[in-house]
Amino acid sequence: MNNQEYDVIVVGASNAGGMAAAAAAEKGAKVLVIDKMGSAGYLYRETIAAIHSKAQKKAGVEIDRNELVNFISTFNQGNVDQRLLNVWADNSSEMVDWLDDEVLQPHGAYIKATPDAHYETERNRAFPTGNEATAPDGKYWQMGYGNWVIAKAEELGAKFAWHTKLEELIVENGRVVGLVAKNMKSKKTSTFRARKGVILCTGGYGSNQALMQKWNSLGLKTNVYTDSQRDDGSGIVAALKVGAAKDEEPASIVFNRGAVPVGTNAEDFYEVDLTPPDDPGYLWLGSYPMLKVNLNGERFFNESAPYQFQMTAASKQPGYLSAMIWTEETMSDESLKQYHTLGCSRLGFPGIFTGEEARKEVNDRLNEGLVQKADTIEELAEKLGLPKENLQKTVDRYNEMVSKGQDSDFGKESYRLEPVNKAPYYGAIVGGRLLATLDGLRVNTKMQVVNKQDKVIEGLYAAGNCSGGFFWGIYPDHVPGLTASHALTFGRLAGKYAAE
Q1: How far, in Å, CA of 127 to CA of 119, rounded?
Q2: Domain locations in the chain as residue ranges
Q3: Where in this chain does the record put each FAD-dependent oxidoreductase 2 FAD-binding domain (predicted)?
Q4: How far apart are alpha carbons 180 and 177 in whole angstroms?
Q5: b vs e for 485-499, b when ≥16 Cβ sit within 10 Å of the residue's Cβ?
Q6: How far apart are the C-alpha atoms of 213 and 448, rounded to whole Å?
Q7: CB neighbours of 276 closer than 8 A, spacing ≥ 6?
């Protein structure tokens, strides 16, 4: 890299970054992408939300644009910039179609529309937004297609500098004109100048416990693992130093799949997962709405809800954790299928979860001591450290309602009521797995970063999880693929705008 001057510099090569690089290069810009790690292709998400994509039209999937946008805004109690939601809705299909035509199909893969999104109550309102990056055999996700996105960007002329970390942005006369970066191997710093713009695609801050304590302290308690091991918040911090504004309240996407040892103190337990795909404590079954109780052995909420509702509800309970209770019969393919879950927990493609995998994973966690097995509820309570009398009373009450086909205590749908009345019984102590933080830098509809007065910081753009205004609080996972699509769509737009 003898020539250190480019038109556009993209920081981060994951979902938003790869798309930004390809889009800018398509428009003829000289593009450099820096990334602190050695690869990023495995991070690209396979379920991608959109409305009116070619695949959806072919499958007859129809989604009303305003209905969906207003649902997302309502879900977030209006704590979003609805103009950004409109921009996403109006550009998501173009992004998906480009990905299908230019990246997937040349390799034999393709986009397949998710045909439905089953729900029966307003609590579980859902939309069939998923566009699945599908392998050539049509039976599974096309994992690692992000490597093809990166290769496409390189084919278009973008250069990638790996093991290169953003240190600070360079500002001249109020405009961002480049950055200082450090080579993670040599520790040497270099200056790179950008004639047109710098695009931050650096992700969130989930692996930075100091920033979690500062910006999402409750999330630090309710999450026991973070699967966002690369997300150190460096892009957000660099932008704040040059006057950028940031969302004032936290937002995140969390899975209720974190099994921890009995007796865990959630306030002290926060493991940064560095070993994908062999994720410690992963319990995919946690996303199924089976019986959940607090650490007093008492049921405390309707388990049938978006994933993150469990951790939010548990934050009002002692210890910030839940115990999940189920039986051998509950893990049969027939029983699991009746729950009609969405997204990655959906049983069978276009989800990737299977009954066989569920049973194997439970057995693996059992061998590790993270799942407990017993012949009686009393024995299970003892193994889980729960009050025996309370848990037995809760299970008896639950079974009584299941037999009547009506959850008169919390209103869970009848098709999601499964008895807990036949040994062997299983249980696990469960907390959250933070997939990503979603509160970030404030941007306008052209992905330009703005300051607290809503004035554009010239030359600075942001996309993906380091950009804000799109999510608040809890992620609406009943709009499958929305986080991935937010990153991919806004990354593509940022690349186009920056290259102009």
Answers
A1: 9
A2: 5-204+438-499, 252-434
A3: 7-476
A4: 11
A5: bbbbbbbbbbbbbbb
A6: 27
A7: 42, 227, 229
Residue 238's identity, in one-letter code, is A
Looking at domain 5-204+438-499, which of 3.50.50.60, 2.20.28.20, 3.30.1360.70, 3.10.20.30 is its CATH number? Answer: 3.50.50.60
Q: Beta 31-35 vs 159-162: how paired, if at all?
A: parallel
Residues 6+ apart with CB under 8 A from 291: 299, 303, 324, 325, 326, 394, 395, 398, 420
Q: Is omega for the bond preceding 424 within 30 degrees of 0, making it cis?
A: yes
Peptide bond preceding 419 in cis form (omega within 30 of 0): no
Instruction: Kindly report the backbone phi and psi dihedral angles of residue 353, in degrees, each rounded to the nearest multiple of 5, phi listed first.
Output: -90, 140
Closest CA to 79 of 319, 247, 298: 247
Residues 174, 178, 183: CA angle, nearest 5 degrees: 145
Record: fold of 252-434 = Flavocytochrome C3; Chain A, domain 1 (3.90.700)
Beta strands in 116-244 (DSSP E): 130-134, 159-162, 164-172, 175-183, 189-200, 223-226
Bridge-based pairing state of the strands 47-49 and 130-134: antiparallel
**Are residues 189 and 161 in contact, defined by beta-carbon separation less than 8 angstroms?**
no
The pTM assigned to this predicted structure is 0.97
H or E stretch covering 237: helix 234-241
Tens of pLDDT along the chain (500 residues) come to 445 999 999 999 999 999 999 999 999 999 999 999 999 999 999 999 999 999 999 999 999 999 999 999 999 999 999 999 999 999 999 999 999 999 999 999 999 999 999 999 999 999 999 999 999 999 999 999 999 999 999 999 999 999 999 999 999 999 999 999 999 999 999 999 999 999 999 999 999 999 999 999 999 999 999 998 899 999 999 999 999 999 999 999 999 999 999 999 999 999 997 666 668 899 999 999 999 999 999 999 999 999 999 999 999 999 999 999 999 999 999 999 999 999 889 998 988 889 999 999 999 999 999 999 999 999 999 999 999 999 999 999 999 999 999 999 999 999 999 999 999 999 999 999 999 999 999 999 999 999 999 999 999 999 999 999 999 999 999 999 999 999 999 999 999 999 99
Separation between Cα atoms, residue 430 and residue 435, nearest integer Å: 15
Residue 195 CA neighbour count, 13 Å, CB half: 11
d(CA 121, CA 363): 33
Terminal Cα distance for the chain, rounded: 24
Are 297 and 396 spatial neighbours (Cβ–Cβ below 8 Å)? no
